Amino acid sequence: xxxxxxPVKKILVPLISIILGFLVGAIVMLIFSYSPxxxxxxxxxxxxxxxxxxGETLRQATPLIFTALGFSVASSAGFFNIGLSGQxxxxxxxxxxxxxxxxxxxxxxxxxxxxxxGALAGAITAAVPGVLRAFFGTSEVxxxxxxxxxxxxxxxxxxxxxxxxxxxxxxxxxQSISAHASLRMSWLSDLFGGSRINGGxxxxxxxxxxxxxxxxxxxxxxxxxxxxxxxFASEYAGMSSKRxxxxxxxxxxxxxxxxxxxxGLGTYQNFFTQTASLxxxxxxxxxxxxxxxxxxxxxLSGILFSVLKIGGLGMQTGAGVPFEIVNIVxxxxxxxxxIDYVIGLLFKQRQTRETEQIATQKTQTSTTTSSDIPDxxxxxxxxxx
Amino acid sequence: xxxxxxxxxxxxxxxxxxxxxxxxxxxxxxKPGEIHALLGExxxxxxxxxxxxxxxxxPTSGEILMNGEPVSxxxxxxxxxxxIGMVHQHFMLVDAFTVTENxxxxxxxxxxxxxxxxxxxxxxxxxxxxxxxAVDPTAKVSEISVGMQQRxxxxxxxxxxxxxxxxxxxxxxxTPQEIDELIEIMKGLVAEGKSIILITHKLAExxxxxxxxxxxxxxxxxxxxxxxxxxxxxxxxxMVGHSVTFKIPKAPAQIGAPxxxxxxxxxxxxxxxxxxxxxxFTVHAGEILGVAGIDGNGQTELIEALTGLRKVSSGxxxxxxxxxxxxxxRKITEMGVSHVPEDRHKYGLVLQMSLAENLSLQTYYHQPxxxxxxLDYKQIRKHALRLIKTxxxxxxxxxxxxxELSGGNQQKAIIARELDRDAKLIIVSQPTRGLxxxxxxxxxxxxxxxxxKGKAVLLVSFELDEIMNLSDRIIVLHDGKxxxxxxxxxxxxxxxxxxxxxxxxxxxxxxxx
Lengths: 385, 513
What we know:
The complex is a heterodimer of chains A (385) and B (513). By secondary structure, chain A is mainly α. Chain A has helices at 6-31, 36-48, 51-76, 84-101, 107-136, 140-162, 186-191, 200-217, 219-229, 231-236, 241-268, 279-290, 295-319, 324-338, 340-344, 353-365, and strands at residues 2-4, 168-170, 173-174, 347-349. In chain A, a hairpin with a 2-residue loop joins strand 2 (168-170) and strand 3. Chain B has 3 domains: 8-240, Rossmann fold, CATH 3.40.50.300; 253-336 and 423-513, Rossmann fold; 347-422, no CATH class. In chain B, helix 14 packs parallel to helix 15 (437-452) and helix 17 runs antiparallel to helix 18. The radius of gyration of chain B is 25 Å and the shape is globular. Classes of the chains: A mainly alpha (385), B alpha/beta (513). Chain B: One of its GO terms (molecular function) is ATP binding.
C-alpha cells in the first residue's frame, strides 16, 4: 500500500481509472484478436498525429467542456442535471436562428447576439425543472430527462414548421450562417491544418475561469455550494434555497446552451434535424465526473474524451478496430471512477489526528442527525470543489 | 476452565490511529451483575474502547478476556455470539415495523421461509415481562414514545442472548421520569445476572445507578472507584483533570425593556397538526427566559417560528415593536436575532465547509467579508482567526472542515458566530447537548455574560439542571401550551417535572407539598 496525502489521492484515483479503462479496452480487443498496441497507437495518431487532428480534438473538447461545467455547477447545488442535451440543443437552434434572421448585421453585434440568445435558450430550458423543483419539489431527474425529448422534437418542429422557408436548404437542414455569425477564425483553422477548430475554444477557456471564479469567489457561488452541501443550514443562515436552486440551474443551462452554440456557430455552421439527444450532454456528465468537477479536471478530461472520440475514428480506419471499442473504454473509465472508493483502497491515506478521531466517533453517531444531511452526495456528483 | 471474578476484562488496550493514541493502555474490569459506569469527556476514548469491545474496531495491542478466557472479537457478529450487546444512543429501529419485527430483524425465526411471528411475539412478551420492560411487542415503533423505543432496543439485544449490555448515553433522550424508570430497569437486569456498562458523562446518573465507575481521560485510564465512596466533585475532577464549578455564580438580573413579544402564537408541525397552541410570553433585555419541557411538546416548532424557519398559523411575533410574524429568516437575523439551533449538524453548520466559511455563514454577504458579491477570503480568514482566539475554538487551523472538529468545538464555533454578531435577542436551543463538563461550563458562562451585557436570552433545554442554573424565569411547555411559569429560586425539580408532565401549576404545587 502506498501512503499518499489527500490531494495526491484525488489525482491518482482518476488517473488509475483511466489506465484501467484502457486496460479493459485492450483485453476486449485481445479477446476479439485485435492488436491493442496497434489500435491505441493509431488512436493516438488519429487524435494527435497531425495538426489538423489536434485541431479536431480541441474542437470536439470545446462543447464537452461547456456541458461538463454546466453539470458541475448544478450538482454543486445538489441538482442532478440530466437535461444538458436538451439545453445544448436549445442553445444550438436559438443561436442559428438569430444568425439566419440577421445575416447582415456586423460581426461585433451579430456574433455576441447569437451567442447570447443561445445561452438564454439553454437557461430557459434549464430554468423549467429548476422552478418546478424549487416551488413544487418535483424531481429534477425526471423533468430534465423528459425535457430532453421535448426539446429534441420541438427543435425539429420549429425548424420544419415555424422557421421561414428561406432559412432552410431542405426539410432537414438550415442554410449555413453568414461569416458575420461564425465562430470560425481563419488564422486558427490555418494553424490547425484547416480543421473545424473555432473561437468557441477560447469561450470555453473563459468559461472555465469564470465558473471557477463564480463558485469560489462570489457570494452566489458560496450560496450554491452551501445549499448543495446542507440545505437546512443554508436556510437557517437566511439563504433562499429556491432562489439558489433556480440560479444554479440557470447558470447550468447557460453553460450547456453555450455547448450547443459552439456546435452551431463553430462546428457545423447550421442546424439540422437531430434524431437523438445530443451526445455532448451525456458525455459532459462523464467529463465532469472524471474531472471531479474542478475546472482543471474538466479541461483535462474534456480533452481526453475528445482524444478518444476523434482517435476512435482513426483507430477504425487505421487499425480496423471497431469504434465501439472506444465506448467500452469510456464506459470502463466511468465505471472505475464510480468505484473510486475501491480504487482508493489501494492507498493508505495519511490522515490527520482529527479525521481519525472523527472517523471513530462517526461509527457511533453515523445514524444520528447526520443521516439527514445530504453529505453522501459529496463525492458523487462532479461538483466544483 | 478458570472461573474469573470478572465477566469482561480489557487489559492494556491501546488503539493507535497512525500516531494518535485514542486508547492508551486502558484497563476495564467488569464484574458479573454490576452496573459499571464508563465516565469521560467527549473524545476521551470511551467510544473507541466500546467499539473495540463490540468488534467494530481492532485494538492495536492489549487483550480482552471473558470470564477469564481470552477472546478475540474481530467483528460485531462474534461480539453478539459472545453475548455482548449495545444499546446505541441513536436507535437502530425501522419506524414502520412493529417492535417484534424490529427485534427479530436479521434473525427471523422461520419455518420453510415463513416467519414465525406468533412464536417470536410470545418470546418477546416473555422477555419484556421478565425484565419489567412493559413493551407491547405488537406496537409500531413510530407509534411508541422514545423511552419505549429504547426499551425495544434493550429487548432486541436481550432476545439475542446478551449477557453484557453496553448502554451508550442512554438518558440523553429521556425525560426525568423516564430516566428513573430506566435506572430501575437496569437494576432489574443486573439482579437477573446481566452486567451493564454504562457510558455517560452525567455524574448524577452514575451516583444513582452505578456500582463502580472507571474514569478515562485523553485515552488513559485514570482509575476505577466504588461509586458509593466517591463524591460527584471527585468524579468530575477525575474526568476533566481539574476542579469544575457546577453552578456558575451570577449576579441578579438587571431587567430592561421587552425585546421579544409573542402573542397567541399558533404553529403547526410538518404534518399539519398544531404543535404550538396559542402561547404568550415576553423576553426582556438582561434576562434569560428558560423554556422547560419534554422533547416534542412544541419547543422545536416554537423556535422555528421565532427564527423564520416555519410558518406561523396565527398570532404574532414582535421584536422591539417590529412585527416579524412570518418574516423571512434573513430579515429576522438582520433585526438582531441570533440563533443557536437545536441540531448543530443539520442546521448549525455546513459540515463539509471549512471552519472559516462556517464562521462567516451569517455575515458573508456583508462588508467587510464581501464587496459587491465578491467574497474577500482574506477578511473571512481574519474574522475566523479572531473568533477562534476569542472563543477558544480548538482547531489545527481555520481551514479544517467543520465536520472534523469535536462536538464541543463545533458548538463553540456556532456560539462564536452567533454571539459575535452582537444581537439583541439570542435564541438558544439545547446548547450543551452531548457536550462534556468543560464545554458546558464555558457555554453557560458565555450565556450569562450576554445576559449581563443586556441581551435578551431565550433558552430552550431538556436538561433541568441547565434551565434551573441559568434562567431568571422559567416557562414550562406541555402539549404546545404553557403549563406554568415559575422562578428558579422558588421552584423544585419535582414541581418542574410535574408541570412538564402536564399537571397544572396548582396541582403541581400541591403534590410537591
